Amino acid sequence: LMDGKFGLLNQLQKTFNGILRDKERELDALAKAGRNTSQIMKLFAEWINAIKDGNYITYDEQVTLAVQLLKKCPDALAAYGSRWNYIMADEFQDSSQDNVDLLYMLAKAGGGNIVVVGDADQSIFEWRDGSPKHLLNFGDYFPAKKIIMNDNFRSSEKILDASNQLIARNMDRIDISMQA
Fold first, then answer.
1. What CA–CA distance (Å, rounded) separates 162 from 65?
2. 17: closest CA among 179, 169, 141, 129?
3. Which pLDDT value is given to residue 17?
4. How far is Cα 117 from Cα 111, in angstroms, rounded to an integer?
5. How far from each other are the two terminal CA atoms of the chain, in whole angstroms?
6. In this model, does residue 1 exceed pLDDT 70?
7. Tens digits of per-residue pLDDT, 118-149?
8. Under a CB-based contact definition with an 8 Å cutoff, are residues 134 and 92 in contact?
9. What's the CA gap between 119 and 148, in Å, rounded?
């Protein structure tokens, strides 16, 4: 009841993350679901205080705080940027602005060698501020050679034809079609 994917603790964590992302929308959804939003906000406030009292940071804050630190401390940026000659980011279609800022800062402070891998049609983390726009606009920030891998060894031609027709309707994408 408390633990597990559908346990109370996991549900509260999801709710609190929703409040952090978009408080008004999350509270509206909770109210429509018949939840006691004032009680949830009291728990949320206690959770925030416990995090602050314990000097904890969330996973997402790790990236945000690193970006802030490197912007304020050029010497630290130079030191960390010089540690890596090459940077590779996979699943780049789901990168947030903070993820991109961190990668670009480190790459530019280092050798400027960065490779990103992704598929704009597979972007699934916009609810966590991920966006395929970063993949689509990568060439605006770094000289880029685009390599398209459109061979699919898992699906039949019939399935890929139907998928290609559906995916072609996506916005913000590179116009490709998968081949069996």
1. 44
2. 129
3. 84
4. 19
5. 46
6. no
7. 998 888 887 677 889 999 999 999 988 889 88
8. yes
9. 9
pTM for the full model? 0.73
CA dihedral 68, 70, 72, 75 (to 10 degrees): 170
Residues 6 or more apart in contact with residue 166 via CB below 8 angstroms: none
120 touches 91 (CB < 8 A): no
pLDDT tens-digit series, residues 46-87: 999 998 999 998 777 899 999 999 999 999 999 999 999 999
Phi, psi angle pair for 173, to nearest 5°: -145, 165
CA distance 151 to 56: 45
Q: Which two tokens stand for residue 125?
A: 């983390």
How much is the pLDDT for 2? 66
Which two tokens mark 179?
A: 């081949």
Distances (CA, A) of 95 to 89, 123, 125, 172: 9, 9, 8, 14
Q: Measured between alpha carbons, how far is 157 from 37 in angstroms, rounded to an integer?
A: 50
Q: How much is the pLDDT for 20? A: 86
- Report the length, in residues, of the chain: 180
